[in-house]
Design a protein that fits this description.
This protein is α/β, with parallel strands linked by helices. It has two domains: 4-135, Up-down Bundle (Four Helix Bundle (Hemerythrin (Met), subunit A)); 142-341, Translation initiation factor eif-2b, domain 2 (Rossmann fold, 3-Layer(aba) Sandwich). The chain is built from eleven helices and 16 strands. The strands form four sheets. It has a seven-stranded mixed beta sheet. Helix 1 packs parallel to helix 3 and helix 4 (91-106) runs antiparallel to helix 5. The relative contact order is 0.12.
């Protein structure tokens, strides 16, 4: 499936709010449209957010291509600021915007028409590279997936969360493609239900056996010996290996440690934030209370209550058995091993 579909003058995104009931695309024609799509979770998943933001910059360049260069630059800076404010935790958003800034800088001597074409090319290349990166992550992780593995996963880390193939779910796909018999236990992922709505849907499309559970069933299944390993994605990884991922990930990591079950994380290098020394330096997005008090227009919580809705939590590095990136597997990630991934 094409999570992000480029149409020359617009970006089409699978509207992930509608799945699995409806499969439809939302159309974006400007940076403002893309920023709202990210904020509203039409598109979600750290790599997919980064790719969408890159296309948002390309779209704005196309809209501004007939302006004088000085006005073009002012409009582009406004686009960068708008997109940077769309969601705070997923570092791939800022990584992608930095690459698009570099593309703007490299075209500083070009007229806006030519600069716009170069920015489109840069966004297309970023999408292509993301798919290749995900396939490399899949190959790295599949080596550690035994035949017959029952894999517990969380949130959605498949093609819908990336430009294609997926990170944690990409490892499942790669293991399957190697001929291994694998099955998935998908945690529903409250409160937004990405596991129930998206991961389960993707696995049905792929004909990979999947069992859906509520989040609070995971420990029970682990105690009964029905989980062989846990693989999750990440929205930001600190320099010491601490992992920010969808709220509830920390709980699974603690449960996996208690039951002696491998806990793996899959993410591209673009998810690693070397400027964050540890998980405490990662901003945690607080989302609207309505996501907790009800769903899809139905309210089940009483009026007048206080709601906490952090979208992410921090899993300490010592709970991560292996980190899979496009540069291979890192056992027990640490500051030293993280730096080594970047050749430092």
């Amino acid at each position: 499936m094409e999570t992000l579909r480029w149409r020359g003058d617009r970006l089409e995104l699978i509207d992930q709010r509608s799945l699995p009931a409806r499969f439809e695309y939302a159309s974006c024609a400007s940076a403002a449209d893309v920023a709202e799509a990210i904020r509203a979770m039409i598109v979600r998943g750290a790599p997919a957010i980064g790719c969408a933001a890159a296309f948002g910059i390309a779209l704005e360049a196309l809209r501004q291509r007939s302006r004088p260069r000085d006005e073009f630059d002012v409009a582009m800076e406004a686009a960068f600021q708008r997109l940077a404010g769309s969601r705070p935790t997923a570092v791939n958003l800022f990584w992608a915007l930095e690459r698009m800034r570099a593309a703007v800088a490299s075209s500083a001597q070009d007229d806006p028409d030519l600069a716009a074409d170069k920015l489109v090319d840069a966004a297309l290349e970023l999408r292509r590279a993301d798919i290749e990166t995900n396939r490399a992550i899949g190959r790295a992780g599949a080596e550690f997936v035994p035949d017959g593995a029952r894999i517990l996963t969380y949130c959605n880390t498949g093609a819908l969360a990336t430009a294609g193939h997926g990170t944690a779910l990409g490892i499942v796909r790669s293991a399957r493609d190697q001929g291994k018999r694998v099955s998935v236990i998908a945690s529903e992922t409250r409160p937004y239900l990405q596991g129930a709505r998206l991961t389960a849907w993707e696995l049905v499309q792929e004909k990979i056996p999947v069992t859906l559970i509520t989040d609070n069933m995971a420990g029970h299944l682990m105690r009964l010996g029905k989980v062989d390993l846990t693989i999750v994605g990440a929205d930001r990884i600190a320099a010491n290996g601490d992992v920010a991922n969808k709220i509830g990930t920390y709980t699974l990591a603690v449960l996996a440690e208690r039951h002696g079950i491998p806990f793996f994380v899959a993410a591209p290098l673009s998810t690693i934030d070397l400027s964050a020394s540890d998980g405490n330096a990662i901003p945690i997005e607080e989302r609207d209370a309505s996501e907790v008090t009800g769903y899809a227009g139905a309210r089940w919580a009483p009026e007048g209550i206080t709601v906490a809705n952090p979208a992410f939590d921090i899993t300490p590095a010592e709970l991560v058995g292996r980190l899979f990136t496009e540069r291979g597997a890192v056992e027990r990630p640490s500051s030293l091993r993280i730096r080594a991934l970047f050749g430092a």
